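User: Before I run my own analysis I want an independent prediction to cross-check against. Here's the chain; please return only the structure tokens and, at the end, one sentence I can use as a sanity check.
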Amino acid sequence: MSSKVFVSAQEVAERAGVSRSAVSRTFTPGASVSASTRKRVLEAAEELGYHVNHLARGLMRNESGIVCLIISDVATPYRSALLRELTQQLQNAGKIAMLINTDRSDGSVDRALQQAIRYRADASVILSGHPDKSITQLCLRNGQRLVLINRDDDQLGPLKINLDDDESGGRIATAFVRAGCRKLAFANSEAGTPSLMGRERGFLAMAAELGMNVIVERYGWTGYEAGKVLAQRMLTRSDRPDAVFCATDLLACGFMDAARHQFGLSIPEQLCIAGFDDIEQASWSSYNLTTFAQPVSQIAAHTVEWLGQPQEDAGDHSIKLKAELVWRSSIRGG
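Assistant: Structure tokens:
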């Protein structure tokens, strides 16, 4: 059985014929070292297979470079897109991402987070509204910097990044009315996250301002199958809607397929539909869904920028972003 053997900086120094401190300066960005010394050190390191122990170096500075990404529903298209963007930008900034999946409700999440804390993770980013608030409190108690995305936690200190979901809901209600729709509906899941409820709240408020009543149905998890069930519930009503805002694109895709294939409805001629997230499937010709694009690049950029700044005293650090409306053909006139 082979055992791991790590090459030390002292071995590199002996091979290169330089001091131990010269090796350290060579691998420290911005440190002063002559070109000839740097060349000898890099050649020796290459020959020996030496790699800098960034974890040990970081711990001496009380900084590991590890960022925990705490996420639920990781398989959904929007979460996957956000995770991809965050990990890429963190890597570009020299950080290491550690993923903690919070889909399970047992003690495995707490155990995983405790392990990350033992590895001296510098920060945690909570990517959804699902994980319990006790997780955020655990991170803060252990001195981590914290970024909360699309959550309504009221703790002071973390960076909070949210979308103006109420505004988006209001915009789509206005679009439906301008398209000639008069029986509006909102299709939601039972997840009850701040972002989903914000879209519902904004949609209902604008509809009321426009003199419209709204049918609201909630069912299950925020996915494709739930969208089909919501369509079956709404489209069998005597007061069947002629426009439906679905809280996410996955719900909208399920809703559209049920509306067309089970009820024979034509979209958008007989039924207008909008979603939220602008997942890849929304642009497919079979859906061509009008939706709102999540600004995942901006979310990731704000996160990485804030984590790279000196730590500030506890206070309110909030950023509110707008989702861009992406017009396609699921609304008349879109």
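Sanity check: The mean pLDDT is 87.
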